[in-house]
Amino acid sequence: MGEQPARGRKKAAASPPRAAGGGPARAAKKPAKPESHLAMVRRARRINRELAELYPYAHPELDFRNPFELLVATVLSAQTTDLRVNQTTPALFAAYPTPEDMAAADPEKLEEIIRPTGFFRAKARSLAGLSTVLRDDFGGEVPGRLEDLVKLPGVGRKTANVVLGNAFGVPGLTVDTHFGRLVRRWKWTEQEDPEKVEADVAAIFPRSEWTMLSHRVIFHGRRVCHSRKPACGACPIAPLCPAYGEGETDPEKARKLLKYELGGQPGQRLSPPPDYPGRPAPPLGAG
Hints:
Blueprint (H helix, E strand, L loop, with lengths): L8 H6 L22 H18 L12 H10 L5 H14 L3 H5 L3 H8 L5 H18 L8 H4 L7 H11 L9 H9 L8 H9 L7 H14 L27 H5 L32
């Protein structure tokens, strides 16, 4: 399901990130002339290799046991954190474990269970709608084709790619806010529209890399390259980043900005994969 062996775990979890090549993070040298497309592609692929070394355990940060659970969790993740979804879905799937169960759910009861994820009325309508379509048109099974998934209520291309890549092994790029922000900072694209971003990035990497690339970029966006204050001084790919300096460049101050396992904090999953080097997240209401 997109999870990788635990090689390099201690390096990634126990010590602060280092720049590519092992030295301290530093600013990328400004090129004397505009970067060619070929040079950008080579730099992009090197960034991917560096991220693979930093996050050998990268994985989807939603708890799920089957395609239906991943589909539902991804729909719920809109406008909230994966952590809040993971804290909510145990009760949801205990009450409605199958599409047939969720299609027959009392709307008010369904809304109350998913209330912590926000926008719960609209999300409840989507869950009831997609469950009904799965029951009536797909024999209660989640389809494994993009063109079928995007016809389900509440399911767009991003959600479809998450499900395809992590439940069916079909490569796909997950263009969420983290992914879009980082690939623009890295000058892989200048596009804002998610589908155009997806097309530009897909042209840079082999199809076989798409799913794991998505996990690595999103991991980095959540842990290091934050929206408002990126931890530039603690970023391992600083020498490859055209946007170096947008955030905190002092190494000690930057280390304090690191999140989740890199910052010694719990992750987002209550049930992370065995090779995850950080602590599981607490259940809803704990602590």
